[in-house]
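Internal tracking record. Fields below are filled automatically when a chain is submitted to the structure queue. Please do not edit lines marked as system-generated. If the sequence contains nonstandard residues, flag them in the REMARKS field before resubmitting.
Queue: standard
Priority: normal
Entity type: single polypeptide chain
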Amino acid sequence: MEYLEKIKPAYVDLLMPLKRWKILDVKALKDAAEYSGSFSGFYKIVAKLEKNLLLDSFTNSWSNEKFVYLSPNGLKALGENERGLGINRDTRFHDSIVSKVARFFAGYPFVKGVYLDFQIKDAFPLLERVPDCLLVGALKSPFKMAIEVELTQKSQERVTQILKTYSDSKVVNQILYITDKQSIFDAYKEYFNQKGGELIKEKFLFLLAKDLSKGRCDLKNEPVYFKGRMTTLSEIFAVSMQR
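SYSTEM-GENERATED OUTPUT FOLLOWS
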């Protein structure tokens, strides 16, 4: 490949975190790659990697963050194929938000593992539905929490079907829906409450983060609908750790 003639091997090594997180903003990639130089210097390296077709990118117009992900050539350079790690341009904005959410939860000490969609099938072959992200951890007891990031609204029939699948799941203990739109938050709550006794109610949490796309929200303190009342993840986790 031509990049071998133009790119330092150490620069290619800076791409390794993308095998874990799939898509990252430039600052997050710098931190994850443990690059000790300046941000401007790192940005120039990213630009060179992109020019040599190892990276592709887009800018989140809401937060003005540049997100980067591996191109087909970048995947080959790291010895990967496109199964799972390849980014679809139609879903890359959603994938970038999921990556941020996953890394947020990875910072909790009681979260022992964070899996993105492309990692879940192999790690949990018995899971009835592949969510956007899966957390594995332990508070008073071990848990597995599925996370669904909803930026566009699904039909009531589809949402109801998914809720029932999660309710019946033998693998996941909790399901956290995250959205940035009041309309989706209200609709999903309504669909959920309409199911009455058909669902295991304590499995489900619905979180509204209006600035999710802008990258300015603090998920642990955003409003959450859980067990018929409004609360926050901070309160839920604090109570769980006290039990």
